Amino acid sequence: MNVITTQSKVSLFFELSLDNGQVVDSNFSQSPADFVFGDGSLLPDFEKAILGMSAGEEASYRMPPEKAFGAHNENNVQRMPRSQFSMDLEEGMVVSFADMSKNELPGVIAEIGETEVVVDFNHPLAGRDLTFRVKVVSVEAAA
After folding, report:
1. 16 near 25, Cβ under 8 Å?
2. Contact in structure between 24 and 15 (CB atoms under 8 Å)
3. Regarding beta strands 23-26 and 8-18, do their DSSP bridges make them parallel or antiparallel, or are they unpaired?
4. What is the distance, to the nearest Å, from the Cα of residue 98 to the centroid of all Cα atoms in its chain?
5. Which uninterrupted H or E stretch holds 75?
6. Cα Rg of the chain, angstroms
7. Rounded to whole angstroms, how far apart are CA atoms 26 and 92?
8. How far apart are CA 128 and CA 126, in angstroms?
9. DSSP state of 115
10. 74-101 burial, b for 16+ CB within 10 Å, e for fewer?
11. CA-to-CA distance for 51 and 29, rounded, in angstroms?
């Protein structure tokens, strides 16, 4: 029986949910996701959680922020002049910005004031406890 190792190609169903039961991401009603262990598709602690599992196994793991998307960092919340935005804004809207290296950086519009806009560059799930539910479909050696 193949078990998941750091040399595995894995096919699985997964679900991420909040403490209140709200599902924030799931592929249980779709096709399973395929990934090669260590390819960056899953967060490192999510990968560690499924090590040793085999095809057909299901499990749920509670993931604190430090093992999921990190703590909410106030330094990632920025105030910007409203004049910098040439579009209609709504709270909760995701806007793409460029960082110093011209890489795309998404920010969530957290607050819209008369003269300034508060943009949160934290991952939307930062600071949240999550439940990671997984069902392993298949495990094979990575090519």
Report:
1. yes
2. no
3. antiparallel
4. 20
5. none
6. 19
7. 21
8. 6
9. S
10. eeebeeeeeeeeeeeeeeeeeeeeeeee
11. 24
The amino acid at residue 23 is V
Closest listed residue to residue 37, CA positions, set 74, 8, 3, 64: 8
User: Can you give the pTM of this predicted structure?
Assistant: 0.78
> How many angstroms separate the Cα of 11 from the Cα of each of 8, 15, 51?
10, 14, 13
**Separation of alpha carbons 107 and 40, rounded Å:** 22
In tens digits, the chain (143 residues) has pLDDT values of 689 999 999 999 999 999 999 999 999 999 999 999 999 889 999 999 999 999 999 999 999 999 999 999 999 999 999 999 999 999 999 999 988 888 898 999 999 999 999 999 999 899 999 999 999 999 999 87
- Architecture of the domain whose range is 74-120: Beta Barrel (2.40)
Ranges of each domain in the chain:
8-69+127-141, 74-120
CA distance 113 to 81: 9
Check: CATH 3.30.420.10 for 8-69+127-141? Answer: no
